[in-house]
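Sample entry (309 residues):
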Amino acid sequence: MDQLSVEHLLGIKYLNANDIDLIFKTADHFKEVINRPIKKVPSLRDITIANLFFENSTRTKLSFELAEKRLSADIINFSAGQSSVKKGETLIDTVNNILSMKVDIVVMRHGNVGAGVFLSKHVNAKIINAGDGTHEHPTQALLDSYSIREKLGSVKGKKIVIVGDILHSRVALSNIFALQLQGAQVKVCGPTTLIPKHIASLGVEVETNLKKALEWCDVANVLRVQHERMDIKYFPSTREYTQLFGINKEILDNLGKKIVVMHPGPINRGVEITSDVADSDQSIILNQVENGVAVRMAVIYLLAQQIKR
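Predicted structure, serialized as tokens:
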């Protein structure tokens, strides 16, 4: 049985190309499973998984839950909004309480960068990072790459531009790591105020002209503007942002080639992307959602194989 080189999924930067390949091969198998009339497999019948979401999340949480149910795991859901965290309980206390219930795997989203790494050093369970602050969101990057591979046959040699709020995005960083590991070229495009200063050190080019970026790329991965993470104004108005960096059907039709459009969601329709683009045949947004379940099943399954009974 092939094994991952890591004991937890804390970030793409800890993975190698073989890990990604193994996750995708496993996801191919699970994708076939979830398209059957009976969508469950008994693979993880004796595994207990705790979903710890210290930050709000609808799509990621539902996707993980569905993946866990399809694998027949037992699930504990914990949402910090309704919990003792509000009363001042620390992360370690919360987790130790949950682990005393004999949990094998913890899926965690947390507002602090490195929360997953911190946890992995203090608790005896497999940790899957479902997003830590503005740092990484590894399963999102994996499902994005998997979706590109499915649509274009391979990620290697492809040109991907990530458009939008790169500064506040954990999706962007994980995607950059994952795409480069698989041999893709990556550019970022957005207002200079929303591009991190260190981005060039990651081997990523910056393009501030949206039209040029789209003419260059095979795939545009469009991110939403994360107003909830902004403590100051990074651009004059949403309208101005849309005029400079919003993608509409007219822009796509004038490119002279067909590019693939993706978006991790939730979409601000009419801001970074118009409905006629999001719902067009160039968009693989709904494929990303479906692939998210298969990829998360693969990650959970592969980490569960390492649990010593």
